[in-house]
Amino acid sequence: APGSKVIFLVRRNLLRRFISWYIGKQTGLWQGTRAEFSSIRDSVRLKPLNPDWVLEQLTRDREVILKYSRVLVENHVPAMQMVYEDFFREDATDLQHLDTVNSLLRFLAFEPITLDEFLSRWKAHILRSEDRLSSAELYRCIPEVERLEREVGSDETGWLFR
User: Fold this and answer.
1) Strand ranges (DSSP E) for the chain?
2) pLDDT tens for each residue of 111-161
3) For the chain, how long is the longest CA-to-CA vector?
4) What's the confidence (pLDDT) of residue 154?
5) Which SS3 state, helix, strand or coil, does residue 43 take?
6) For the chain, how far is it from start to end, CA to CA, in angstroms?
């Protein structure tokens, strides 16, 4: 629609993105807390993954990201690419998170927020790692996952345990 803006959220770590999708597909749990996943984990047996198939999927992911990035540029759509790992960085300072949030707000033509407002109203929604299903513990539920990381993991595709 005319005047629309797009926030294009992408994952730098495509391997973790794919594994999160795979776990959701296998368990039927797409969102929730780690505790909720733990309650069903023993009743679901994750299957091992074929490294060649995973690499095909990661290649497809990269191609799709490039395709949609080009579509936005070619159609002059105001877009901001936001990297998931940057937005949800657990090692970032409060000021770094505030800067990330304010860049997003400015792009959407909203007033920036103060550090006090970030700390009182925003921080808890960004840094709640217990609300994320993904974790090394969860990845280890996949049979032969260490072999998968050795064969598929790289600085380009991402890592599960680094």
Assistant:
1) 6-10, 79-83
2) 999 999 999 999 887 766 666 667 788 888 899 999 999 999 999 999 999
3) 49
4) 95
5) coil
6) 41
pLDDT digits (tens, 9 = 90+) for 11-35: 999 999 999 899 888 888 777 666 7
Rounded to the nearest angstrom, the gap between the alpha carbon of residue 162 and the centroid of all alpha carbons in its chain is 15
Instruction: Check: CB of residue 15 under 8 Å from CB of residue 152.
Output: yes
Which two structure tokens, joined as six digits, stand for 42?
A: 């023993």
Ramachandran angles phi, psi of 96, nearest 5°:
-65, -40
State the SS3 of 3-38.
CCCEEEEECCCHHHHHHHHHHHHHHCCCCCCHHHHH
Both tokens assigned to 127: 């840094």
Q: Is the Cβ–Cβ distance between 141 and 46 less than 8 Å?
A: yes
For residue 127, the number of C-alpha atoms closer than 13 Å in the C-beta half-sphere is 17
